[in-house]
Amino acid sequence: MTTPVRRLALPATRVATALAACAIALTPYAAQAQTQAQTQAQAQGPDRSQALARAAAEQRAALAKSPWELALPLSGAESTDFYDITATGRADAWAVGRKTDESWASAPVAKHWDGTRWSDVPPAETGGRPAQLDAVAASGPNDVWAAGTYTDIEIATASSAAARTPEGTKADRLSDTLPDTLLDRLPDTLADRLREGAALPGTADPIVLQHWDGTRWKSVSRPAPAEGSIRFVLQLKSVDADSVWLTTLDWNPAADPADSAKAYSGQLEHWDGREWSRTALPQGPDGRTVEPFGITGTGPDDVWVSSQTEASGVSTPLLHHFDGRRWTVRTVPVPFEYGAGWVANRIVSTRRGTVHVLGKTNDPGVPSGLLSTRFDGRTWQPTPVPGVDEVNATGVDGSGRVWAAGWPPQGGSHALLSRWDGTTWTDEELPAELTSTSEGSTVFAIAGVPGTRAVLAAGNAACESVTGVCGLLASRGLR
Q1: Is pLDDT of 112 > 70?
Q2: What integer is the mean pLDDT of 263-282?
Q3: What's the pLDDT score for residue 97?
Q4: How far apart are alpha carbons 160 and 318 in whole angstroms?
Q5: 330 by DSSP, 3-state: which?
Q6: What local confidence, expressed as pLDDT, does residue 156 receive?
Q7: What pLDDT does residue 208 have?
């Protein structure tokens, strides 16, 4: 039996960092500083080196005692990726994504937690077309939304490369046709999947939008983008049964990617309990049209949306707030000036009127710097950055602690989770039953369980399946 090719959605630089000669050059500045500090400590004498080694061993031992556990065993019987997760209580949670068969055709997948076990719940039919669910949000057990894309239509600029194969020959060429300006605008996990050769959504196709009413999933129609454009689902957030928000991005492959006004168009849509409609955000302080991205909030009159404007290849991060009547917008302060600018791609509310903003330099690969700041409705307060090279997922638990996930800056193939206690970030590894048996893992989403300190994480991990990956669901404090 041939061992499947590992197709984890890891950044391309992760492979390069395995080369010792390139490790320092490809590791973010924080990791470089740590390496230099270790070298200097060793030069100070054996006592210092031994103390450093003991500290590192103690840290590894602490991480080995992970409070996380696998919610589902890794199974090679099916190839699954979980892209998002949400929970409304200890006995109600959903994870969505896709499953892939031996022909590499994808179908949407939804799993439900009922307090005892995870079980498959068939999504609504997609007319026989390959599709996936990229985002999920819920206000209660009988009110869940999921959004995704069809993946069966090729585009002119990538028609020779859009088909995915187990060998990856055509898929590998697909990443060469996608402009960095597009990948920079997409969620990190989606951008990494496209770099690895994942199928693009179809041109001029509406998104896949479905609603769970407590009994079954039903399709909800939405208008298609302009002819020739491709629409990507970015984020989905429910702050109330009558207040659900969705961000999407349209890309016109025929336009010059350097001309952002023609190549890209962002949308913010709102469900008011009766219908979906487009919501116009105010322009940025520079008078330019904004591209919405992240969404968070505590209720219909406390909604936050991150966005960006771009001029001459320089991105400016913005934060919008809706108080139930009107929108306001302000520029997000950044740690230092950077040539390509910054993006605020992760935002999370811990209580009414307060939002934590996490972001990065506007780089196509591993960023050169991270952004972490907190806004209380009046003032900004810079906060330490998590101990990862890039924040791929964020969430908040029932006690108000912020969670983040990414890869260790020193390199490594397994995702690291970090929690913020208001003062410092504390790193936690995924359970040893995963890290000791799988070659790598990715966390795409984090969700707190309301009313508890429990946390859920969703993603994928290397395994012996058709695509080389299995769905990853992990929990902390759920049982």
Answers
A1: yes
A2: 95
A3: 96
A4: 37
A5: strand
A6: 43
A7: 96
Show Cβ contacts of residue 22 under 8 Å, excluding neighbours closer than 6 positions.
16
**24: part of which helix (H) or strand (E)?**
helix 23-26
Q: How far apart are CA 228 and CA 56, in angstroms?
A: 53
- Write down how long the chain is: 479
Span 433-445, average pLDDT: 93
Name the CA dihedral angle for 21, 25, 28, 29, rounded to a multiple of 10 degrees.
Answer: 120
Distance CA 297, CA 299 (A): 6
Helix (H) or strand (E) holding 16: helix 12-16
> Which residues neighbour 348 within 8 Å (Cβ) at sequence distance 6 or greater?
296, 355, 356, 358, 394, 395, 396, 402
d(CA 83, CA 380): 31
Assessment of whether the complete model's pTM goes beyond 0.85: no
Report the C-alpha gap between 88 and 95 in whole angstroms. Answer: 12
Q: Answer positive or negative: Cα dihedral of 285, 289, 295, 300.
A: positive
Helix pair 29-43, 46-64: axis angle to 10 deg: 140
Amino acid at 380: W
pLDDT mean over 448-465? 94
Beta bridge partners of 141: none
Beta bridge partners of 373: 357, 382
How close are the terminal C-alpha atoms of the chain, in Å?
A: 38
pLDDT bucket at 64, cuts 50 / 70 / 90: low
Query: Are the C-beta atoms of 8 and 440 separated by less than 8 Å?
Result: yes
The residues near 254 (Cβ < 8 Å, ≥ 6 apart) are: 156, 157, 228
pLDDT digits (tens, 9 = 90+) for 284-304: 888 889 999 999 999 999 999
Pinpoint the alpha helices (H) of 65-187.
169-177, 180-183
Per the listing, tokens 């061992």 go with 3
Of 125, 120, 79, nearest to 102 by C-alpha is: 79
Q: Rounded mean pLDDT of 142-160?
A: 72
